[in-house]
């Protein structure tokens, strides 16, 4: 029979038995699954009602992939191996939850940030690149050596030389790249690199489809500042340090001006619980116009372990991770979420997100999802904060804003997804996007 007659008589994918479609999907990697519906209308219809698929727009947790030998983890970085875990499928009738594959753009690179369908990745020499794993698109960002006085080192570090080029300098470890805008944005990309030791720099798209040829370092308000998170909002760049102090810069002014100190919310969690450590994340409000601050409070695991006050082990991620902020290595007890009013003068405690939304935080750029009935899953819950790469060891914590003392978020659930012990890379939220037609 000729190929044309075979094509004419072959049944459309949507007419195949569901078991046959499932059998095909079981052998596909996550990128192929996302591309599958874009092939033709018949293939798209076959995927619409299949709860076992990884779906574009559904929140997925990105973790390292399986090692070929099942024991060591180093080779999965070299191979570009990764896993996507669809948390919205957990309650959807026993659907498949984990999808493993490899991506050419991840070979020998660690992800250090992301925004929806794009990842910010870095290699050992701190060369940062933006990657869309589904389309394969890659955008190289400038070298950090474009920052005056900064030299690039190995092992995800740069060094800032003192004035006059004196050989002794300060080492800065890359902690995160806040990808505020992706290359898909009409104005191009905008990325903020957060290093240890108070080094904060940004780069943005230039004219046409070309990016800027440099990173711009921002001025610090004090010599001892050490940033934990940063975000761009309404023409300003905001950052929060490890003590909860907030700063802002006008993006158009670059490094030419001193930062404005933003009065933070009253934070009594440490005194209330007798805790000794806090971690901070920034986000935009649901409407996208106001600044949000999340505070996680807990006790110092290292100190408790050292003096035997508690039966908790020291966090092994401090030594095992390629990129890791050891200031977040503490046992969390709860969280609080605050929103800055439009005038920028006062804060309010947030105990709900509008009744049908959840907030996703981590190394990814923060985002909201309308969760009820969207994905047909009971596992995504409204008025909750989903935090990836939590301070103490598990992959994800779900904080319920409506539970706890005085509006403090209560840890409702702890989720474990990583398929390897002591993964080298951080778990991070990732929202796959549609493959272009």
From TrEMBL:
Pfam assignment, any one: Beta-prop_KIB1-4
Record-annotated KIB1-4 beta-propeller domain positions: 106-400
SUPFAM superfamilies: F-box domain (SSF81383), Quinoprotein alcohol dehydrogenase-like (SSF50998)
InterPro entries: F-box-like_dom_sf, F-box_BR-signaling, KIB1-4_b-propeller, Quinoprotein_ADH-like_sf
Name assigned to this protein: F-box domain containing protein
Organism: Zea mays (Maize)
